[in-house]
Specification:
It is built from two helices and two strands. It is globular, with a radius of gyration of 12 Å. It has a two-stranded antiparallel ribbon with strand order 1-2. It has one domain. The chain is α+β, with helices and mostly antiparallel strands.
């Protein structure tokens, strides 16, 4: 599983109390990993409190389409 770093802005949300206001969003093309397989599933991403509601509103879309809409709204990914 990826650490709680916003998939849109790159903000690291991990602190002593956990990822405050952040959560995972499962998009329409979410594919859970098979039992016993380690890693991070496709279509499941962390978002910070600032971007969480926008990402949740696009959860019915495939990951790539949702991310394109989020980047169009908020700007490109951080370098």
């Amino acid at each position: 599983m990826k650490p709680p770093i916003c998939h849109l802005c790159g903000r690291n949300m991990l602190d002593a109390d956990g990822p405050q206001g952040a959560d995972l969003v499962a998009f329409a093309d979410f594919q859970p990993l098979p039992y016993g397989v380690a890693g991070h599933p496709h279509g499941l991403e962390w978002f910070c409190a600032e971007h969480l509601s926008a990402a949740q509103s696009l959860a019915g879309l495939d990951h790539a389409e949702a991310m394109q809409q989020l980047r169009d709204r908020y700007g490109p990914e951080p370098l």
